[in-house]
Amino acid sequence: MASLLQQELASVLQRDLPHLFGGGMAPGISTVKVTPDLGQARVYLSLLLGGDAEQRLAIIRDNGKEIRHALAKRIRQTARVVPELIFFHDDSAAYAAHMDEILGTLVIPPAPKDDASGDEEDKSARPRLFKGE
């Protein structure tokens, strides 16, 4: 049910209700999580492109009934109940980009080269695992 809602909500936002975004790009649907009783669906939106994310999320929340009605028209043959839609901003992509930026600035020194020659190992250099070693 969650994947059906994800696909159909993406179509609703892109094809049926593009006027909500003023000609801008419709948000992507990252994930949909449905409660076991199919009463609620938590819709996580990717709002990276197209302007202020909080403003776009507010527009979507204000038009939730219209979005749910358009979704009901699309899935009326498949589902008996159209769940209540609760919209959330999915900022995981922005977080991943931020972490990538932080990891890119780290200076990691190269690993020290092993100066041991041959197969003979220095017993004092390796950790002792047992008392008798």
TrEMBL record:
Keywords of the record: Cytoplasm, Ribosome biogenesis
Region (Disordered): 110-133
Signal peptide range: none
Keyword set includes Cytoplasm: yes
Keyword field contains Cytoplasm: yes
Subcellular location: Cytoplasm
Known partners and oligomeric status: Monomer. Binds 30S ribosomal subunits, but not 50S ribosomal subunits or 70S ribosomes.
Protein name: Ribosome-binding factor A
Source organism of the structure: Hymenobacter glaciei
Gene that this sequence comes from: rbfA
